[in-house]
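Predict structure. Chain length: 97.
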Amino acid sequence: MAEDRWGYLWFEDARVVQERLRLLCVVAGRIVPLPVVILHPDCRLAAAGDVGRLGVPRWWAEERGLLLAGGPTVARWAAPGGEDALSRESLEGGVVA
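Prediction complete.
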């Protein structure tokens, strides 16, 4: 698992849903609150229905169980200049669509 120099991880194909007045995010097969205040500045997820890359601090992802040992790798890190350092591995059956 790699992370950028600021400690952010990127999860692909995250989907934002709304439950009453809360925004939630479906990512890595889990439903978690959307942490608007601590998102990476380049993360564009902001409203119900948005789908894209979720950039969150490593500590936040760990606290919510998004980094499971032996599970599919869905996290990527953003290198300076916006280039991704790791390619996405196959997610056969590992993520809620």
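Summary: The helical segments are 58-63.
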